[in-house]
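WARN retry 2 of 3 for item q-0093 after timeout on previous attempt; input resubmitted unchanged.
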Amino acid sequence: MNHTTPYPRPLLLLPFLVSLLFLAMAAQSIAGQAAATLQQDGQSLRLEVSVPSPPPTSLIASIKLPAQTKIGATSPPAAKVDSKKAHIKWLVKHPRPGTLRFSVTTSPPMKLSSVSAEVLFRPPGGGSLTRIEAKNR
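OK item q-0093 returned
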């Protein structure tokens, strides 16, 4: 008499379960990445930062403009504006996961290629300082 078991053997399930675990870890690491983009609309520049989950305890967003650029209004209000170096910095304590937006108006309007922006933070579990350069859109 030949008996077949209606359920797969435990060892046959092991590779499948390990594959699922790796896929779940890969999805979590992709979701946990921060990103930054820089956009221009006339005389306004906007830096958008994607804050991962879990978020860092704080982050610094900065925009570096060409020399001689006059800096107008910033939103939200910048933590530091260096008019001589045309450098703006925002400090965000306890950011929430999602998108943060920082903007500045300038005079005269400039080419987006002459502007740089970055975000600095430490991962939530500690570790070295992470620097993300904003991509121009």
